[in-house]
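Q: I have three molecules that I believe assemble together. Could you output structure tokens for the complex as a whole instead of separate predictions?
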Amino acid sequence: MDILSLFPAWLLEQGPAFVIVLPLLMGAIVAILPSRTLAWWAALIVTLLCSVTAFGLLLQVYSEGASLYTMGGWDPPHGISLVVDALSAPVLLLIAAMAVVTMVYAMPATIAEIEPKKRAPFYAAFLLCFAGLMGMVITGDAFNVFVFLEVSSISTYAIVAMGAARDRRALAAAYNYLIMGSIGATFFVIGLGFLFMETGTLNMADMSRILADLDGGSRVAMVGFGFIVVGLGLKMAMFPLHTWLPGAYAYSPTMVSVFLASTATKAALYLLLRFTFTVFDPSFNYDIVVVKYVLVGVGVVGMIFASLQAIFQTDARRTLAYSSVAQVGYMLLGVGIATAAGIAAGYLHLLNHAIIKGGLFLAMGAFWYRFGITRVTDFNGLSKTMPWTMGAFMISGLSLIGVPFTAGFVSKVNLTIAAADKGWWWAVAVIVVTSVLAIIYIGRILLAAYFGSPPEIDGEMAKRNEAPLMMLIPMWILVFLSISIGSNLFGLGDNFVMASERAANLLVGIGG
Amino acid sequence: MIDIFQINPGLWMILAGLICALVPKGDTFALVRKVFIIGAPIFAGVMITQIYTSQEVLAGQITIGGLELTTLRIDNLSMVWGYLFCLIAVINGIYGFHEKCRITDSSALIYAGAAIAGVFSGDLLTLFLFWELTAISSVFLIWKGGKRAYAAGIRYLALHVLSGVLLLAGAIFYAHSNGGDYSFNAIGTDTLGGWLILFAIGIKCGFPFLHMWMQDAYPKASITGTVILSAFTTKMAIYALARGYVGVDILIYIGAIMTCFPVFFALIENDLRRVLAFSLNNQLGFMVCGIGIGTELALNGVVGQVFVHVIFKSLLFMSIGAVMYRVGTAKASELGGLFRSMPITAVFCLIGAGSIAAFPLLAAFVTKAMIISAVIYEAAYNPGLYVIAAMLLFASAGVMEHSGIKVPYFTFFSHDSGRRVKEAPWNMLVAMGLAALLCIVLAFPWGGYQILYSLMPYEPNYQPYTVDHVVFQLQLLFAAISAFCVLKKFKLYPAEKRGEILDFDWTYRKLGLGIMQWIGAMWTRLSVQTKRLRERAIESAGRRLFQVFSPAGAMSESAPSGLAAVLTAAMLIIVLIFVYFIR
Amino acid sequence: MTDKNEPETLSRKELEERQNAHPFAVPFLWLGNQKVIDNFIWLPVLGMIAMIALGIVFPQAKPAPWDAIPGSWALIGFVAYSFIVLCAKPLTALLSRDETYYGEGGLPDPEYSTEHSSGDHHD
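A: Yes, here they are, computed for all three components at once.
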């Protein structure tokens, strides 16, 4: 491929390590940088470099196939390996790209939201969180997953808590997240322990091989599987375990909302796919039973309940947060269909939802930045005071609903088709119903914004006060992406569908 | 750069229609619209000639949401309909030249364009899109008929939108059972989807019991509106049948019944435009039957019949429309003797009537003979089809009754109504003249019907002008006219009376309405009785919902760490139960 | 226009009729003559007889069962036509209702409708 030849060979060769080590190291350096602007530049450049590298790795996977990187030259199963394949590479790029978008937006946003002396540490914690997420996705070692999970989680607690300068409830939310996240991580590591007992290895490929030899293994492996599913379920806000999410999304600093909403749960979902389809195998009875009944069950119930909750929220940020929980349900439904088409649809929705929700939270942040708006009732007339931001919000919202020519439509249609192919007509009905609920909760906000009139301040209509360019640019990049995927501009839609299909084929291919 | 030969020619007409909708009111601007309304179909026709080759042309593929749509498919079947629709759109445009109505102009263009685009669509989803667009754009033509047409228009719209929805549902089911393939080729009735699509088409082309929208709405539309409406919708449905259901046996019986039952209704109906609508239904029966037979001869007959049918049916609607334009009514009981004041229209009407009755040297003679012959030839293998052939002959006599005799006789001859009006406007005469000329040319034995033959999908080797064909057809027609004269002489021919003739639509316009009204009345009573009860229930349900879901509610408590931990444990137990015990 | 070659033998009524008629229709006004109408029947009857005779000479190339009877199509035409028309009376009795039956004002012909409406015909 032409573009691939533009990347220096060493970058591609060392890329897998580079995308983790660079942000980890720079996190430490940024923390002690004296200047806020310098810290921002450093963080931006790190994320930019990482996304360029991730892009190169993605292209490499597509042209040359999956690659295995051995840390320090120690071969697996004893050394730590990093795996870049069709499943992990798109998620890597997604996380890195969303980090860039977030960083661009963070420039004006941190000024408003973070106390001056905390800004450099904020960027450092952000980079650590970023490094943790990248590491979770790329590593081929199960224990390493836990380590990176903790790295990202702990730094996330810290940056969520920094929202306290804006909203004191952020402290409670961060505490809540801390407790729940720790429970999740503990469950995960307990599950790993059981697995280690059963297989005697921590390398995922190795585990997979041994488990296949044991034909699924004994009850120890089963219990380990249960713990891992629940632990990851907690991290990705699977329905009844989602209670930490609304607070964390709503009260954290706005750029943290953007980044968390579009990446954190996605990385956990990625891990769930890894564990249920490659480490364990759907041909094991207990695996497929959980995938088919538990994941689909909680997914569908979550879709409906969280959508209902989203309708009743007064705080628009919480509406979006509950909507995220519902969207996780869509992805779980796709995974639970367990056919190549179903997984591809779930995976595609993972990518698309990150773009959509990122755009929505960016717009929410801009509303807060200009007017301090968070409540739905305060949206009145925003289309007149902030037309560009509201336009981005509207298009992303329509995409969330699944209007044709937007990204949400593509993944919902694929999911519907996959469900229909499987003969799950009830699932089609649920998708339709929840889409209607989405129309209600998004429509409620749009109605206020487009048909309400701006509030009067001292007897005068509020004046137009558009968000700064640094916020508008990332917002509209995401909106543009969403439309491009939906209308297949520049072949983007096809590329996204192709990426999801490749990922699904990888899972189903290995899974028999 | 987009290749303009990739664009479905119907879209040009839709575009022209949209432009017409934006052209301001006023006489000079009306002229601009007329340029569009006559020019756009000509342009679309030229585009078809440019795109059409002897091979099937598939173009205009677009992908939406992972579905590959083929928006343009021109082959030797769809091409016929395309040319025909362009031709008739031009004639309609000339006929409506005097009318300065923006809505009529633009909706006529969009409607015709949608019909053309629908015919050229290569997959079921594109077809669905234009299927609905024809319904939505044409309803304005009905509403231009005035206040009385409003309810009929709503019923028309409801049935046609229903038809579209059925088509979509059928397409989805069909593609599902067919490996996700939405392409529009032979469908057949092996699958549920196939049946649903057949039902959708059945509504559009007036299968028995699904037909009433036609006789309900067409006579209530504006004068030009009826002429335009009669040409497109049903023929588009015939195209869909000819594409998807060739040789499906049930169509033979449906078609035969369709040819026969409208005959009786047409006889006792007083409104001549409604008579023509029944006649339209009866002609469609011939085509449906021919498609059901499905032999090469039958399909050639159907294609030819569609082509000439659109022309002579328009001619009849145009002549009655011209009369209505001048006199103000189309009721047989109020007309008569008009040949004295509208002789040219009368001649055109007679040509149309002769064409539909299949007089030798006039349009339908060749094509109807092909369909009936195809049935009789097939009957050699399946004697049961002789019954069908006899039904078609019976219906031919019926056509002679309602369209061949009744329409021209009661309008232009019969007892003199004493009305002396002007001849039709020049543009109507030109349009009718063109159609009449085509009726003669397309059946002309020496080089005329061969033009029609060149459009047919299979190589035609049928000789229409043999002595026996001509003689036996004339036997039938002369006998029918003789019977008319005899019955008239013995005063057995019923006088035209004004009245509303009940048809199947009674079930929903009267029975259904009555039931709904009864339910409504009962509901009102019931709701008065239970008002307090309901109010209380809704209030408490709303309160509960709010209590559960609202920010302060049980589901959204902000610090439920303890609860969440319990939930997590519960979740683990559930997962473990599944892991252990569900096999 | 019509007075150029107007014969002097015309009655007043005929003259009036000529004046009111469209110029193209003038040569055909005899169509309205009662005698013509009464004797019109001979045209189709003679045509039918001629065609039946011809039909015996030139039989159907591919006959249907009923083509064994001479003049089969004439018979079908005559019987079918008569049957249809004779059905009119019972059908009218069964199905015909007043024009206002559905309460939607019947069909759009303002001047003649049983309901009030503004006239809409064009001169």
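A: One point stands out. Chain B has 20 helices and three strands.
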